[in-house]
Amino acid sequence: MVRAATKGTLKRIARPAVTSVGAPWRRRILLVEGSDPDACSVTGLIGCIEGWTSDVVRARSIADARERLSGGGFDAVLLGGGLPDGEEVDAVVAISVAVPEIPIVALTDRGGGDRGLEAVQRGAQDYLDKSKIDAAALGQALRYAIERKRAEARLVYLAHYDQLTGLANRALFYERLEQALNNAPKHRSRVAVMFLDLDRFKSINDTRGHDAGDALLQQVASRLADCVRQGETVARIGGDEFTVLLEGVRRLDDATIVAQRIINAFEAPFDVGGRKMVMSTSVGVAISADHVRTADLMLERADRAMYRAKQQGRNRFEVSQDEPDISTGDLFDTTCEVERALASGELDVWYQPKVQVTDGRLIGMEALLRWNHPRLGLMSPVRFIPLMEQSGMISAVGRWVLETAMRQMKFWLDEGFGDFRVAVNVSAQQLEDPAFVDTVRELLEATGLPARNLELELTESMLIDHASRTQHVLEGLQGLGVRLAMDDFGTGYSSLSYLVNYPIDILKIDKSFIAELLTSPRHNAIVTAIVGLGRSLGLEIVAEGVETMEQLEVLREMGCRSIQGYLLSQPQASVDIEGWLDDRTATEPE
Ligand code: C2E
Ligand code: CA
Ligand code: CA
User: Fold this and answer.
1) Mean model confidence pLDDT for the chain
2) What is 520-556 written as a DSSP string?
3) What is the pTM of this model?
4) What ligand 1 atom has the least distance to the C-alpha of 352?
């Protein structure tokens, strides 16, 4: 029984039973035969098989046969003809699909050798010419069919199951995983793979011997099987490596709850030969995404996540961060997650300074959102902003960022940290909201922050998509006295018409250009052009992502006036950036 490798039946199916052939044994045979006279004679023959006591149950159609077999308890099927709902070969196929473990002997009419052969090709184990049978031949055929079926099951078992633990092996796991990945889109759900590696298992083998190691692996297998539901697959794919396959995953929790259950399942010590052994495991979790759909890729990602779990101290699980599954879809109930994040303080705004090249004066702080997720750790907005945009939650979060940053800036102003601007990133959806200008106005009033201390960063794509409506909003914002910056300049269309038509005050040269500034003459030429363009249009130019003194020097020579980047500081939480500000004022010449 191949299916049985999954949970629940694990212990029962561990190995196919082996019985001795000649033992006196009560057999239960299902005779599938439509025509009465044949049935009577065959029943009689079965009764005469030497060494057997047999119960013969009669089915008169394929449907009847399937129903009776579904109740279990039969040792073999004898398949005659004259069935109302199909030919004999149809019956072979129907029965062997419905009950793959049941041996079938087909009875053919006189001279029906070809049909008999066909029956065997379709799944019967043997066939007999009805006109020639006697009890001995029938007994032999049935015994042979039963043994042959058992041997087949044994082969299937060997090919699919791990001999030590009875769990699915690597081959079966791959087969199931591939099938699951194929089915997932149909069910609009995802597949999760967990990769487990026992922590310091080798030392058990080395110090306690391989028998102890084996016994431990068997107990681990059994505990793992108890962590999953019926129908979910646990496999042993290598020495101390196990994998788990979950289907129908709709939220990350569906997988992480199981991962945690697995970690917990190792809490109680194992008992090997009367001695207690403490063992833990590290687990990597990967979840399928639209572009992560092959078994290899899934395992590779789960493996990498597992490696990270090891690095971070073992006895824990980590979720693969390679795939942007968190930003691509229905996996999370985003609304709930974000509401919880807002309510429980998981969201935070970090700040990165922007200074003037000529005199090092602090001119601004960019507010950058961070999500300290309870399971996924500290996340950069690139991972979750797209998801928030998809779910429409970005407007609520964007408003929260705006308010938080404005209150912070007001505090800095009041506390004498300096008179600079806080720059907040705005997403397209916020800008499309006709009430956005009112929101900003209300927040300015509520926080008491002067409008000149606020800057909003926009990207070009926002301007392209909804040109006329956005123009209106931008003019409204300008009317409030808020400054507007074009972010990531150079990566989009960089159309000059935006700079002419929209009330933009600042151009932020994208960090990808700065990264190549010293190595690529083309990038260098583009930066030179942007700086020249900005200057002649009277715009403030900020180079983003400045990491080295060399880059700073080149930018200074080009006439770029402001910079932002790791050279000055990484983005930091507000209290940390205050420390940075204090240090600067302490060392700055008056
Ligand atoms: P961005 O607006 O281009 O922000 C600059 C990104 O560059 C930040 O990444 C920052 O940490 C990083 N960075 C700064 N200096 C350097 C440097 O010297 N070298 C390198 N390699 N990187 C540097 P972060 O914080 O991960 O933000 C990523 C993006 O997420 C931002 O790109 C912005 O588009 C978006 N974002 C951040 N906060 C918000 C927000 O509150 N609302 C919206 N709508 N988007 C946000
Ligand atoms: Ca930005
Ligand atoms: Ca940028």
Assistant:
1) 86
2) -HHHHHHHHHHHHHHHHHT-EEEE----SHHHHHHHH
3) 0.53
4) 14
